[in-house]
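for the writeup, i need someone to sanity check this before i put it in the appendix. the sequnce is what the collaborator sent (i think, or maybe the updated version? ugh). structure was predicted straight from it, no edits. if anything looks off just tell me and ill rerun, i have time this weekend
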Amino acid sequence: MKKLMADFEAARDRLLDLGKDLVSSDVGGWTKAQRLFEMAKQIDLVRTELKDMVSPEKSILPDCTVDTANPILKRNGKTAIKVRSDYPKFSIRGDTLVKIGLGRDLRSEYEHFVSRGAFETVLRRLDVFTKVDEFVADEVQEELDLPTYQTYIVLAVLKELGLVDSPRRGVYSLRGRENTLLSVDRIWNQLAQ
């Protein structure tokens, strides 16, 4: 069992090192690095669960069970399939908005980050659109010096909070909501709950 634990630790450390190397050397390496960091996290979760499953007086694993509230492993060792309707999830970590999405394999999660400063910038830009019937994200993005995905994340959060309407895919409306976007702190605190 000690050898197995050491192998998991070595695999986790190697993935972290590879991710760090990608960030510093490869253009566009951040996306690949994020995936490697996520894999390292998953390996560490497996290692921790295995460690917890082994009692000191036994040298074999008991039968594996799946916690349906928070599935980590199936009996075959694969990550449990997650429910698509539970995603995306949004949370606040420090001064960063985090969008947690579900991977195409329905097992892995990925994260995208929007700083509070970028969040506030998008909200200020959206103020222009309170007087028009409809707009698209590209119109919001036109005068912003931010990655496009951050604009989409802010719009998704506002939609989830009921502050932006989306009458059809890719089209948004703020009509009649001139005062709802004024309080960045109120929105941020609502997300932090």
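The beta strands are 89-93, 96-102, 109-115, 135-136, 165-168, 171-173. The helical segments are 2-25, 29-53, 116-126, 137-141, 148-160, 184-192.
thx in advance!!
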